[in-house]
Design goal:
55% helix; 110 residues; globular; alpha+beta
């Protein structure tokens, strides 16, 4: 794979955030670092995309947020997956896996 960064497909950021929060609570900076580390720098999510996604997920009841203190002693908002969020993650993951399988079939077709 080339070292180029890829743009996120529409609708995938919510799934990514839900999946990362499955491991435990995190603030926005931690989420962006996890995305970069997990994808080896291929995906780079900026805060202008991340925070609206977090607010959208919070409004839907999929994550909850509370203020806390970060590792560098700064005030930060920490996000955590709710029970509803865990269920939605399973639904979205299943839909993504079906989509990826269908796309794979198309790409392999002659």
């Amino acid at each position: 794979m080339s070292g180029r960064k890829l743009d996120l497909l529409q609708g995938t950021l919510d799934l990514i955030v839900l999946k990362l929060l499955r491991a435990g609570r995190a603030n926005g900076w931690q989420l962006t670092q996890s995305i970069q580390a997990t994808t080896r720098g291929v995906l780079d999510v900026n805060y202008g995309s991340l925070y609206p996604a977090l607010r959208r997920l919070e409004a839907r009841g999929l994550v909850k947020a509370e203020w806390g203190v970060s590792e560098n002693n700064r005030r930060a908002r920490y996000y955590e997956l709710t029970a509803t969020g865990r269920k939605q993650l399973a639904v979205e993951r299943d839909a993504w896996e079906r989509f990826a399988a269908a796309l794979g079939a198309i790409l392999e077709a002659e």
